[in-house]
């Protein structure tokens, strides 16, 4: 692969890429993740041509995890400018248009606006766990699990708390929906992202009408006349025309004025949906695991679950098929923190190293750890974790006098800790008899080949595949969805392939996958670790109460 600033391929390839960029035959994907906003330019053959990123962080303001809209705008512009700079360095041309464009972002949360489009309260992200009463009441009413982070739980909690902004709410949406409306003027959402706002009926691929009616009657006691269906975004499936880039939208992305309006946009999606696309796991019996600041698994179901489980969300693929989701608020952030500490230690010894080198050394050491982690125990809980019933988190490393404190056991335990809550949810899914042929993994934690992938296979006791697109993640996934929308528009709806066929036949045909089969020792070792992990949750709860 070419290095940053170098063109990719030989002279003929570069000339072809230059022509595709100049003619607008590329697609652009932008994903707003929890720590990075990434832009990814994809060629007509779906390969990554260039990328750009902008780092950002959520802030805890007045007890609410949030990002300001100014930070959203600045981050979009920074990521887009970095992408354009990468294109110019590699190919000597500057893009002015694209065949299609797509936006994705962290799912769920609460962005509420008045009739003039003004934000009423600071953006409440998925990370907030202040909606316990609302989520419990809605779950009981619907007979359907409504997690704390879902948008409807945030709205209903605001109603229960009689927040003064509620009478002025004219619309609410997710982060992807907000950015999409800023670019196109349309209040729409892809069905996958919409299914994390309010339950979706997979038969209609739209909000569940029975539950909308139930919510209307429930809310009427405090807010007569509130019709939630009029506040929610319109639901669109993958491949739909979700609007065109307006002049204002083009100026938002590119204040320099180089980007022309008129670009087709695909429906905005959540990071769960783009993860499914990026791993070609939108068909039944396939699943994917996305590991970042949060970590979640998605399994496409053959039929509805028999029972309601608080550990499992029911959402959909970008095409509207039912998916069971195990969502953990805490993912790889604690691993990042420890890698940063070891990097500082290496520098103090006179051996400064890159982050990739530090991660590589630490992860490789984990392979030599005892299968059960040597008696150590790690919790990655920087925030609350609904699956284990915790409203707040305290990162912990715990050991007994007889446990082994070695680098290998420490790092294996830290990786196990990142997968611990996920494994608890996956065991609930297994208890429902859900079959999984393969799990596809993506996210930066899998960049060190053969480590996190192997340990994850042991944790979920299923084959785990990682492809060459694994580290590209959701920005590439939404760029592919944009390409699918372009292909659908060009073919006409009657002749367009399904999303599953498009991915299998046009995007992933011939893609090499590295598949890790579960190792028997890892499976047994992780099972022993998880038993200790479950018992040790009492330690985590005590830490929350004491600290």
UniProtKB/TrEMBL annotation:
The keyword Transmembrane helix does not apply. Residues 288-485 form the Carbohydrate kinase FGGY C-terminal domain. GO terms for molecular function: kinase activity. The keyword Transferase applies. Keywords: Carbohydrate metabolism, Kinase, Transferase, Xylose metabolism. Gene3D superfamilies: 3.30.420.40. It holds the Pfam family FGGY_C. Residues 27-253 form the Carbohydrate kinase FGGY N-terminal domain. Belongs to the FGGY kinase family. This is FGGY-family carbohydrate kinase. The lineage of its organism: Bacteria, Bacillati, Actinomycetota, Actinomycetes, Micrococcales.
